[in-house]
Amino acid sequence: MNKKIGNLIKIFFFLALILAYVPAWTQSPDVKYKEAIELGDKYFTAEDYLNAKASYQVASQIKPAEQYPKDRLQESIRLLRIQMEQVGLFNEKLDFADRLFEEKSYDKAILAYQEALKVMPAQEYPQDQIKLIRQLQTEEAEKLSTYQGHIAAGDQLFANEEYSEAIDRYEQASIIYPDKSEARDKIKAANDKLSEIAAMQTGYQKALSEAEMYHARKDYEKELEAYQTAAELKPDEAFPQVKIQELNDFLKKYEAYTAFVSEADELYISQQFAEAKVKY
Q: Is residue 93 classed as helix, strand or coil in its secondary structure?
């Protein structure tokens, strides 16, 4: 299909050239020859070798004995072939560069577009693509910097055990790069910490409630165990530690008191009333 279109274009240019000479058919061969040569030279200088070739063909038909249009015709054909080869090579390099661009291999794409420009330096498309890539790279660098800033801030908050605030920063990072797993993994880790804290708080409150219940029952051993559980769950909390110290002191006194009462009871049972009274 492309070949047919190319052939039609060639025919169109040739017909246009012929029609350009229609008004001059009544002119002398010298005038027509001169005009054809001047037009051919103009195209040749502009590196439009296809139209230059057509013009020199017309000139050679007007004056078949002239060598100049024949030489220029051959040179136009030679340069046209080179030009077509360059176009083919340019398009090949351009296709490769475009594939790299689509793959977002931007550094490699720039090099590929530069290689295409070596073949046809005047082409604007490769230059525009290089400018576009550099703009995209700048935007990507800014985007990455913002992302890394959120991650770093989140990590600091996480280290400070400010997990809810850390999640907020990780979520902002995730909005920038939704496909990256890093932010999602950090959000999960922070949520796990929050779950652990919630579970610990629940266990802590339960231990305190049990301690109060055992205190009301005067079951001081169980009360002590409950406060020890609370202290294990929250080692930095002062309240369970204070209660543990109070209970240990109380239990030591209580054990001593119980020992005296037991001795007094035994003396009383053995009817040693005076000694029992001293113990009581």
A: helix
